[in-house]
Amino acid sequence: SDVPAAYVGYVGRVTYDYKSRYMAEFNVGHNGSENFAPDKRFGTFPAGSIGYIVSEESFFPKNDYLTYLKLRASIGLVGNDNMSSNRFLYLPDAYSVNDSGWLQQSYNDKNGYIFGLTNTAYEVAAREIRLGNPNVTWETALKHNYGVDAYFFKDRLRLSADYFIEKRKDILIQRNTVPLFIAMGGGLLPVVNMGKVDNKGYEVDLKWSDKVNDFSYYINANVSYSKNKIVYQDEVEPNEPYMWRTGNEVGARYGYVALGFYNKDDFNEDGTVRDDLPQPALKVKPGDVKYADLNDDGIIDNDDQKKIGNPKRPAYTFGLNYGVEYKGFFASMNWTGVAKCDIMMSNTYRDPFYNKQLGGTFYQYLVDGRWTEETAATAEYPRFTYNSNNNNMATSRVWLKDASYLKLKNLTVGYNVTSPKVLKAIGASKLTVQFTGYNLLTFDKLKVFDPEGELTRDDNTYPVMRIFSLGVNATF
After folding, report:
1. Which of 110, 311, 338, 367 would you call most buried, defined as having the most Cβ atoms within 10 angstroms of its Cβ?
2. Cβ neighbours of residue 84 closer than 8 Å, sequence gap 6 or more
């Protein structure tokens, strides 16, 4: 991170316009990155677009219903040279130097670089942390976009709609199918161009604005949808076909299918699970989570995990903006929403005794929804147990929550002082008083924390705040 990044590139653009009716544009970039070897360093990325305003044609009927119509399309190639914080991906290998602390911890004070028979101090050392790949180069994405813009009713209603397709290939990844027994584990493997992901979706924006005497207003609604699919990610063939991650979305959730909770009737007198039920890999008791045996082999193990939910990134994003103005008074609001997205509860949100040294963290929803003999028919969460319970803490639909929400993001109410007497009295040419509220209302199914925020290991992310402000803006 102490070495400045270096990029070299050339860009060019050609545009064409004829009578504001036929339009075309061509762009090209020739870019070089320090992350690749000299003969792989440069990539050429062209893009082109065309537009046709049909309403400018002589044959287009002049009317007040459809006053403007534009068709447009674009296609372009873009590149990416970044993989997390990894740099200089083509170098022969990478080392971590002065690494005696790692060696001492790794070998548990039993092995490492110690010189002499009586010396117990570990000498500074270097270790190989990643092999280079001289053939690595740009990952690319071919993007298509097809759209239409239309105005109706004397331009008061405006519509913009887009459909897009993206095909990303040669994605920078590290191999997953190289066996560990050849000592080529995770961080040591070189970066290669192998991943493929397809993405497609649409965006629609609709706005109505009008003015009646001194009263003006607008309302703007938009929605977008995007769905991607992993085409290739160098995945090891799983034991069961439903375990494939290739073919699903990036970031999709995987885990066990929960069937509820064990009850007393599920056990023999000696406390073991009945023979006619799938046998869990861990010892369980009444109130523990019961999982589906997806492959019907009579055992609950890792082969019984499948896709159980959506990524955190929403498939749908909504927006609604509204504003009014009347004789100096004005107000506006902004609503946002997302759908088809999930959050996986973890750590303190899953285990009430996660911080045992601090006595644990008891969230009310876990207390109210836990399994007891009295709540067995309605329980949402497993029984409480102070001891570690890997069966209940396993990733499953029990801990996967719908992160959809509808939120009043902003609300502004104010007044523009227009009275010449008032402005003259204070020596101002303009005076505005306004109240603004941020993150005022949230409607969601989660009910535990703001679904717009991020869930971290230590529960220390600064929450999304509700903010109120009252301001005066004067121009003298």
Report:
1. 338
2. none
